[in-house]
Amino acid sequence: xxxxxxxxxxxxxxxxxxxxxxxxxxxxxxxxxxxxxxxxxxxxxxxxxxxxxxxxxxxxxxxxxxxxxxxxxxxxxxxxxxxxxxxxxxxxxxxxxxxxxxxxxxxxxxxxxxxxxxxxxxxxxxxxxxxxxxxxxxxxxxxxxxxxxxxxxxxxxxxxxxxxxxxxxxxxxxxxxxxxxxxxxxxxxxxxxxxxxxxxxxxxxxxxxxxxxxxxxxxxxxxxxxxxxxxxxxxxxxxxxxxxxxxxxxxxxxxxxxxxxxxxxxxxxxxxxxxxxxxxxxxxxxxxxxxxxxxxxxxxxxxxxxxxxxxxxxxxxxxxxxxxxxxxxxxxxxxxxxxxxxxxxxxxxxxxxxxxxxxxxxxxxxxxxxxxxxxxxxxxxxxxxxxxxxxxxxxxxxxxxxxxxxxxxxxxxxxxxxxxxxxxxxxxxxxxxxxxxxxxxxxxxxxxxxxxxxxxxxxxxxxxxxxxxxxxxxxxxxxxxxxx
Length: 484
Hints:
With 484 residues, the chain is an alpha/beta fold. The protein folds into four domains: 9-156, Alpha-D-Glucose-1,6-Bisphosphate, Chain A, domain 3, CATH 3.40.120.10; 161-258, Alpha-D-Glucose-1,6-Bisphosphate, subunit A, domain 3 (Alpha-D-Glucose-1,6-Bisphosphate, Chain A, domain 3, 3-Layer(aba) Sandwich); 261-371, Alpha-D-Glucose-1,6-Bisphosphate, Chain A, domain 3 (3-Layer(aba) Sandwich), CATH 3.40.120; 377-474, Alpha-D-phosphohexomutase, C-terminal domain (TATA-Binding Protein). 37% of the residues lie in helices and 20% in strands. The protein has helices spanning 27-45, 62-75, 88-97, 130-141, 158-168, 191-198, 223-236, 263-277, 292-295, 297-301, 313-323, 348-361, 366-371, 388-407, 457-474, and strands spanning 17-20, 51-56, 79-85, 102-106, 115-121, 151-154, 176-181, 200-205, 240-244, 251-255, 260-261, 282-286, 305-309, 327-329, 335-337, 377-378, 417-421, 426-430, 435-440, 447-453. It has a six-stranded mixed beta sheet with strand order 1-5-4-2-3-6, with helices on both faces. A five-stranded mixed beta sheet has the order 8-7-9-10-11, with helices on both faces. Helix 1 (27-45) crosses helix 2 (62-75), helix 5 runs parallel beside helix 6 and helix 8 (263-277) packs across helix 12 (348-361). The longest helix has 20 residues, at 388-407. The chain starts with 16 loop residues before the first strand and ends in a 10-residue tail after the last helix.
């Protein structure tokens, strides 16, 4: 291989590609990635000159990376349409709006400075899943590139088209006071304008673009960012606080009292609100999400169903697409709104808009709306060590044991298992909606354990002791990262 090309194979991940720039990938490596992606797009679309939407986030080196990527795409015959400084959802939207064949967004999302990467997709509204990433990796590293005559053009002011699309469909009746925190990331030039446009009174927090991220990383799971939003919500007496990640596809939510609301509960509140207008809809949630969806009185009344599916934003997005679900909610904060609310991809600003609709419709404060949900006792995610080459077998073994326990009607803390779900490890639940989950971690040598009780702290712990006892008997479990 040519000495000047640097591209670390480990940068190709399950759903996107990420590297530390210049240490793990150089410009020539990025150009080769562009050639690999262009070749893949041509193979999938069967077009000689497929049209590819390209955008970049506000890091000091993102434009340089984008130039190198475009060079590779053009050399394979792709017609590149560059929408400039973007959020990931703006690039996804452009594929629909401009009816293009594929997308490539240069971003490392909320990762620290130094990181770069690309989020890409061919089918509208969907990003690469593990199979496409594996294929891209093989084409790129083996340099099996197609040659062609491509070209590129700049699409001016496309940010205005994206903003207008979200604003025109979502006007509010009430004036909602919202803290909008962007951690100096790219969402700073989008979120305040759009939320103001629908009728919010916006209090901006770190919305000026600064690629050094001087205060904290733009990541709604970062405690520093959450604490800054809490402080601002309290000081300004706001109705709600929103924190957007670096490329705008996720949002974190703080209520009017300054409490963080976990994404699975936010998802349920949005689903309840949507179910009134969209009866008989289905919603997709990941297996780590609260069990409240399955027995929810409002969803039941509106004849809506919830499908629990594999954890991972690419999995949930595809399931929403395949099931023609109205929306999908992942515990990590990726929310997906399908037609008529969105195009199926994750857009943190659209998620914030749906929460504004919830406040607009009800005469209650956000904290009161959250308190309307039944109280549950949720464990954190616990990860006991388990070797990579053993973890899947351990889970298969546990599935069989739990199925036998259900069959034999053996009680756990006085209750029989009612349902078993095995789409992603095993999630077993009881009549009252309490449940436990055991799955293999997709990126670490460990298992993932979560429990939730609708009854008490004690019952939550009993479900965990039941799981832990089964696991200890396998002799293949090491230390937990944390335990209840």
